[in-house]
Amino acid sequence: MSKKESILLVDIGNSNTVLAELFDDKIGAELVVKTALFSTSWKSFDLEAFSRVIVSSVVPKVSDQLKDLTNVVFVTANNIPLISINMQSDSQIGADRLVNACAAYHHYPHPTLIIDSGTAITFCLIDEKGVYQGGAILPGMGISSKALEDYTEKIPYIEVQKQNVLLGKSTKEAVEVGLYNGYIYMINGFIKSFKAMHKNLFVLGTGKGLDVFKESLDVDVFDDRLILKGLQVISSHLKKGVKNNV
């Protein structure tokens, strides 16, 4: 593909960085690398070979390394299309949350509650008019497990698997039962409260951190490519020279 036609989508998260190329406005296969590795080896990805690189980043120390590349566009509250923002400080909103909101408003019914689970779990609400109304941020299950390891003497870090019991018969099982069921109750509790506030709320899940819970959550659709779809929408609007349709 020639440089004139090539567009790369990049999502720099706290744990992982995802890259995918657009082919005729269709998202290609994903390449997932650890963000720590991408931080030290991004030059090997030949970003300058693309006509445009659309970047969502929540890791400034990584994205700062790309600022001198003239073909890179960073997603911010100032260039996000389709939605408007009702927050105390637009600049403090993570780019990933804005990109997800843009994708959700473009592709799904609204009002929409977006639940994204990675290093952290975020809840974001987009109302009927496409206004980003804010949400909540919680530690992801991995962080909670790591905290138990760091602040206790005998509890190791545990990768939680699906549980069908409420009584753990070992320390490992007790942690798994507590984290697994605790996060289900917490997430579904948030969903219930948001639904009480907003009639016909559409609940959208994304992020690999939700995989272990999928069967137990009151979520309408799971879309693991939501952030890439949002970057795709942003790329399309940049081509048209459109900032916001709201």
Question: What can you tell me about this protein's structure?
Answer:
The protein folds into two domains: 7-74, ATPase, nucleotide binding domain (Nucleotidyltransferase, domain 5); 84-227, Nucleotidyltransferase, domain 5, CATH 3.30.420. Strands 1, 2, 3, 4, 5 and 6 form a six-stranded mixed β-sheet that branches. A six-stranded mixed β-sheet has the order 7-10-9-8-11-12, sandwiched between helices. Helix 3 packs across helix 6. The protein has six helices and twelve strands. It has helices spanning 35-41, 60-63, 95-107, 141-151, 171-197, 226-240, and strands spanning 7-12, 16-23, 26-27, 31-34, 52-57, 72-74, 84-85, 112-117, 120-126, 131-139, 202-206, 221-222. The protein has 246 residues and is of the alpha/beta class. The two termini are 34 Å apart. Strand 9 (120-126) and strand 10 (131-139) form a beta hairpin.
| CATH class division of the largest domain | Alpha Beta
CATH-assigned fold name of the largest domain: Nucleotidyltransferase, domain 5
CATH homologous superfamily of the largest domain - what is it? Answer: ATPase, nucleotide binding domain
Beta strand %: 15-25%
What attributes characterize this protein structure?
Nucleotidyltransferase, domain 5, disordered C terminus, globular, alpha/beta, 246 residues, 2 domains, 6-stranded mixed beta sheet
Q: What is the secondary structure topology, with strand pairs?
A:
Elements: E1 7-12, E2 16-23, E3 26-27, E4 31-34, H1 35-41, E5 52-57, H2 60-63, E6 72-74, E7 84-85, H3 95-107, E8 112-117, E9 120-126, E10 131-139, H4 141-151, H5 171-197, E11 202-206, E12 221-222, H6 226-240
